[in-house]
Specification:
Blueprint (H helix, E strand, L loop, with lengths): L1 H7 L6 H17 L21 H18 L3 H17 E2 L5 H15 L6 H8 L4 H14 L13 H18 L12 H12 L2 H4 L3 H22 L3 H20 L4 H20 L3 H13 L12 E2 L7
Antiparallel strand pairs: 1-2
Helix pairs in contact: 2-8, 3-4, 3-5, 3-14, 4-5, 4-9, 5-6, 5-7, 8-9, 8-11, 8-12, 9-11, 11-12, 11-13
Length: 314
């Protein structure tokens, strides 16, 4: 970033202090594809009773509801969504088992992230399966995703990339002494919530985590820039342009192709504009559908697995 910094007339960041952040980014990029599910597989040779990508989106929205209901960190949602997508991309799942699978992924993720979630309460909320079903599905999820063998590893999600990107922006802008912190204009909690919304839509979930997180940041900064131009806030305009420049350099660092960035940006923009313009009506509708989806009780028979063939490993 040194040459770009010189062009802007700003002091170059201390490379030594950037090392921990750079290391975290390199580590996340190294394992990104391991946790990248191939959602296209869900639609291959699809039978009428099997889970579709639309079913997948409803399930991910249920994960959002569970996170809010149990008041657990965002990491639990992102880890659970990753587990769900990995499972669906590796195994054929009948639609009648999806609710149990979704809740089981949430329970395993909460356990992985060190959060105490009452399994009895999960079963009571979900209504259409019993504790034995949950225990059985939790065991299957752990076995198929080999989670018990990787307890020392944390799942890398788009939220991890978002936080790393924010740390890069904060560090560089603090070196430039702009007079305010990046988190004063880019609220991490709001960004994570909006990232959840994007991940709950399969048109965005297809993309790499590093791409989706970068696109969200770019989308939010450009929106702030539009407001700053309208308000003629010249100092803020300059700083926001600097932030976009840093994102451009992050794009090169993460080896994100321009076409990939544009395609993801278009999809993410459509999702966020629809969400914002409808004043969350779509989300409310999803909640209503989720309640109907789990409003009946049907004892589950033995879970029959049908392995995808061929199965693309992630």
């Amino acid at each position: 970033m040194d040459q770009a910094s010189k062009r802007r007339g700003r002091p170059s960041p201390d490379a030594g202090n950037m090392k921990p952040i750079a290391f975290n980014l390199e580590e996340a990029l190294a394992v990104e594809n391991i946790y990248r599910p191939n959602l296209l597989v869900i639609q291959e040779e699809l039978q009428p009773w099997e889970v579709t990508v639309s079913d997948r989106d409803r399930a991910v929205n249920i994960l959002r509801l569970l996170r809010i209901w149990f008041d657990v960190p965002h990491n639990v949602f992102f880890t659970a969504a990753t587990y769900l997508d990995l499972f669906l991309s590796r195994l054929k799942v009948q639609e009648k088992y999806l609710n149990c699978l979704t809740v089981s992924c949430f329970y395993v993720a909460a356990e992985k992230e060190g959060c105490n979630v009452d399994a009895n309460q999960l079963v009571a909320i979900s209504k259409n399966f019993c504790m034995n079903d949950l225990n059985r599905m939790v065991k299957i999820v752990k076995e198929k995703l080999k989670l018990d063998n990787n307890d020392h590893n944390r799942t890398t999600t788009c939220a991890n990339f978002l936080i790393i990107y924010l740390e890069v922006l904060e560090y560089i802008m603090s070196r430039w002494m702009v007079g305010y912190r990046v988190d004063e204009v880019l609220k991490k909690e709001q960004l994570l919530t909006r990232l959840e919304i994007l991940l709950a839509n399969n048109s965005c979930a297809f993309f790499r985590s590093s791409v989706l997180a970068l696109v969200l940041l770019k989308f939010e900064i450009e929106k702030l820039l539009t407001q700053a131009i309208a308000n003629k806030s010249m100092h803020l305009i300059g700083d926001l342009i600097q932030l976009l420049g840093i994102l451009r350099e992050l794009q090169f660092t993460c080896k994100i192709k321009s076409a990939e960035l544009v395609n993801c940006s278009n999809n993410a923009s459509n999702v966020m504009k629809q969400y914002d313009n409808q004043n969350n009506k779509q989300h409310s509708s999803t909640i209503e559908k989720g309640n109907r989806y789990r409003s009946y009780y049907t004892p589950l028979s033995t879970i029959e697995e049908k392995t995808k063939s061929p199965c693309k490993k992630n």
